[in-house]
Amino acid sequence: MSDCKIMKIEIYNAIVEDFNKLSSFSRKAENELKKKYKHLPPSTLGSIISLLVQRAMKQSYRKSPVISSKYHDLYEELMTDKSKGNVIMKLSDSQGISPALFARSLLQNVYSDSTMAKKCIKDTTLIEDKDLAYQVYLGIMNDNQYGPYADIIKQSIGLEYELRLERELRLMNITFSDENILRSRGYDKTPDFKLDVPIAIDGFIVNWVESKALFGDEENHSGYLKEQLSCYWNRFGPGLVIYWFGYLETLNSTPEVNNMFILRTSFPEKSSITQYRIDL
Known about the structure:
Layout lengths: L5 E2 L1 H12 L6 H10 L5 H19 L4 H15 L7 H9 L3 H12 L3 H9 L7 H12 L6 H24 L4 E3 H6 L8 E9 L2 E9 L5 H19 L2 E5 L3 E2 L12 E4 L8 E3 L5
Parallel strand pairs: 1-6, 4-5, 5-7
Antiparallel strand pairs: 2-3, 3-4, 3-8
Helix pairs in contact: 4-6, 5-6, 6-7, 6-8
């Protein structure tokens, strides 16, 4: 049976095309996209949108005193309006960047010390101007794809799925060493779980399992392959990578898949797993 989370390239390209037509990065714009693709799992589409927002911000954002000054002037002008409302949300929409990123650039004009600006993004109570503090807070809390609030959400989801995987391994009596144990042994780059005894999944030998609580497309998978997965394979042999929110079908045709590791969108059923035992 085919996995509905393994996405055809045509569907993915259509999502990217529609995303590029968005005039803002607000939740309202995101919800419009979700309505069009309501046949997809919300976690899958949400993860794709998150990845696209992150990339768009990296491409469009430039750390520049001129831009920061411009944003500050726009902010000051709009703050004179008595019915100003959520100023940063309005300005981020008009400038085509995320609210948290607009707030970050704005604070870089307020504080000459970039370290202080970063601290204020994470803790708005440090901002002396109470109106600015409130507006920055609103901008951050209304940005679920970029900034500290979004980072906390992603970290929490990542941990949730790691714990889910750990629970499934324990239920199947598969023993393992986690990242903390491996680091205590001197490994600098470690998978989430190194199996104490290899298992076979549909005949493929698996020595380690890596949990990715996101959608796997070619760009982020290529980054993981270079920075993490190749290292795991060199040190521990072949393994299993789980993209919990799905992955692009084209990844299955890359040379490393079924050689260095296999891809799944969940931990396999017990019926497809062969466990080995060491005779002492």
